Fold this protein.
Amino acid sequence: MVTLAEFAKLEKSPVNAGVIEEIITANDLMPLLQFKGFEGNAFLYNRESTLGAASTHAVGDTWSDTEPTYTQKTASLAIVGVQHPLDMFIKATRGSVNDQKAVLLKQMAKSLGRKLEQLIITGEPEATSTEFEGLDSLIRSETRMMAMDDGAVDGPGTAETELTIDRLDAMIDLVEGQVDSLVMNKTMRRKLTSLARASGSGVQLGQIDMFGRQVMTYNGIPVVINDFITNAEQYNDASTWTSSTATTIFALTHGEDKGGYTILHNGSVLTPEIQEIGIKETKNEELYRMVVYLQPIVFSSKMIAALGGIDSAA
């Protein structure tokens, strides 16, 4: 008797074209980032240090000269890339459903994108010299992190402390310009929503359309979710945060025109450079590399702030 198993030998098993994405992390910050291209590998810019002193005068007074002073800042580009081989036999014989090179390049682009998203938050050149400076490191280096425990603008503090609306508002007020985004993880969004629901809080959370969907706002500021912000922040300070359940909320103004947070780059960063290295000498493989050159900066330190040491477990 003819069986289904026999007929199955004559049928090719169906294969779905493409690759099903499983490695997904929420990150709404990327579409808000502002970029500035330049030539060279290091960018120099001047920041105000002091202003010339203005004063009142009587008729016939002798006037004293005063002059402003500036601090020159330097930002050096970091190299971020990924490299993968592709077996030439697989490329030639296994392309009936998926173009193996196209699949490889797509996965490389995703890997590179995820690394950039991670480093924008966690990049720590003090710990790993090849990394560019992430938001956490940049804000602490500019002394713009308010401590949740005592409100001092001197880092994350010494004790993980429950989030309060008053402290969040005080941190937002550190930013002298328009705050374009409040960047936090989902844990802090839930905490903020819980505080807003509390009786007598007076907090109203709105919604606006961003990225083609509804995004929560706090006092008109978009709440931007980023899952690369950990609930176990170490703040590069093992003596204080040896077993941390702390997290951070960032307040950012974006773009050079506002003096805010900006991504410097040489060459294209939104479309990474693809380098086809060629055939390996010792293997039947073709080598591909994808790379970008960039460094985040803030033109004016007054355009960024953060609230650190927030207890994410409370």
User: Anything to note?
Assistant: The radius of gyration is 25 Å. Helices lie at 4-9, 88-93, 100-122, 135-141, 165-172, 186-197. The longest helix spans residues 100-122. Residues 9-24 have pLDDT under 50 and may be disordered.
